Amino acid sequence: MSQPILQLDSLRMVYADDTGLVSRLLGRADPPVIAADDVTLALRPGETLAVVGESGSGKTTAGRIATLQERPTAGRVLYEGRDVTGLTGAALKAYRAKVQMIFQNPYDALNPRLTVGQSLAEPLTLHGLVPRAGLRAAVLEMLEAVELRPAETFADAFPSELSGGQLQRIAIARALIIKPRVVIADEPVSMLDVSIRSGVMNLMRGIQRDTGVTYLYITHDLAVARYMADRIAVMYLGAVLEEGPAETLISAAGHPYTRLLIRAAPEHRATAVKRDRIRLPGDAASQTGQPTGCRFHPRCPLAQPVCRETAPPRVALGEKHAASCHFATEVRQNGLAAATAAAV
Question: Which positions fall inside the ABC transporter domain (predicted)?
Answer without folding.
Answer: 6-262
